[in-house]
Amino acid sequence: MSTSAIAINGAISVGAYFITVRMIPRLREMFIKANLCGKDLCKRDKPQVPESYGVIIGCVFLISMFLFIPIPFAFDEDAATDAVTGGKPITFPHDKFVELIAALLSICCMIFLGFADDVLDLRWRNKLLLPTIATLPLLMVYYVNYNSTTVMMPNFARGFFGTSVNIGIFYYIFMGKLAVFCTNAINILAGINGLEVGQSLIIAGSVIVFNFIELFLGHQVESHQFSLYFMIPFFATSLALWKFNRYPSQVFVGDTYCYFAGMSFAVVGILGHFSKTLLLFFLPQILNFLYSTPQLFHFVPCPRHRLPKYDAKSDLLHISTTEFRMSELSSLGRLMVIVLRALRVISWQEQADGRVVTNNFTLINFLLVVFGPVHERVATEMLMGFQVLCSLLALFIRYPLANFFYATQSSI
Ligand code: UD1
Ligand code: MG
């Protein structure tokens, strides 16, 4: 049944792709009329582009998944109602069924909150809160349904802690934080045409490849099937969006898409029990987040937009900058910029009046510091290339690493 469920899921996804491709251009006027647009900042005439298309993609994804709900269950003998009791037989996988519904509820909630963010332009504080709220359905169902908060210990720690440790409430905190990280990490590696969708496509593709490898090896079959049920339609709908969002963008995805994508990854990582492997696929986002921390936590001034600066003459992207006096920074802020400067990972220019000008701390700007000004399309391609390399590296180290750290094949 499971192989046919994956095949039906694939067929629904192909349909979703074609429907999305047809829908996107037709809805442009509607978005512009509703004033849901943003300026394409890296173009000569800064055209208005319809924004928040994530809400369309999210809806097509949800409809596809709603149609898919009965497929893994309904054709099973266990799904038939018991003639005597009137209920489902105990062999019916109630837990799996409710997990699927709860996962969809969390993603649905995230799309709704993401769209609210796009319309209301929320502050950073609230942006961190939204994914936490959206994970609640998932965490509550997990609590009632499964409530396993035990983690396997790596070999070197087993002498102290034993094979596994029950970490209780911290497990829930970890799951909530994973959703906050996945959603925001995609949202802050953004600002040039196609990057939000491009990185999400590569992460989704990597998860799909990983799921198929695990299925082939016969590891945790149900978890990886569950992940595929979500990732295949996600990939298909995102691919349709990519057609219109890549350089030169005809539509923007908005925070709705970044949240929707991050939440979908968090859900499959959590319920598929491979959150640590998932994080391996987020390597560029982790690097971008770590590099960004001085600005995200306001140790260094952070402008509203950190995307690169467009030079109309050469049609190339240059680094965007932030300015400060060393004396204005806290001691921790000073230490951070001194270390980053010593590591030569930021540009550094001292003005005559003592002000320091450095690039904004994002991976896109770092790329420009290293390679000099490049065209917007090339910058997206380079970052996507880096994402692919990181995924290959992740897959390459995943198996030897798991065997090295964990005696048995565990869910990592
Ligand atoms: C995040 C980043 C911000 C970056 C922005 C770009 C942090 C803390 N925040 O903010 O630095 O500038 O994303 O998305 O790192 N845009 C383009 N070209 C594109 C995509 C977006 O010009 O290819 C511009 C458009 O004007 C669009 C706007 O960015 O309207 C969207 O920004 P928004 O998603 O609201 O920014 P944040 O997610 O808050
Ligand atoms: Mg955004």
TrEMBL record:
One of its GO terms (molecular function) is UDP-N-acetylglucosamine-dolichyl-phosphate N-acetylglucosaminephosphotransferase activity. One of its GO terms (cellular component) is endoplasmic reticulum membrane. It is found in: Endoplasmic reticulum membrane. GO terms for biological process: dolichol-linked oligosaccharide biosynthetic process. Its EC number is 2.7.8.15. Its cofactor is Mg(2+). Pathway: Protein modification; protein glycosylation. Keywords: Endoplasmic reticulum, Glycosyltransferase, Magnesium, Membrane, Metal-binding, Transferase, Transmembrane, Transmembrane helix. This is UDP-N-acetylglucosamine--dolichyl-phosphate N-acetylglucosaminephosphotransferase.
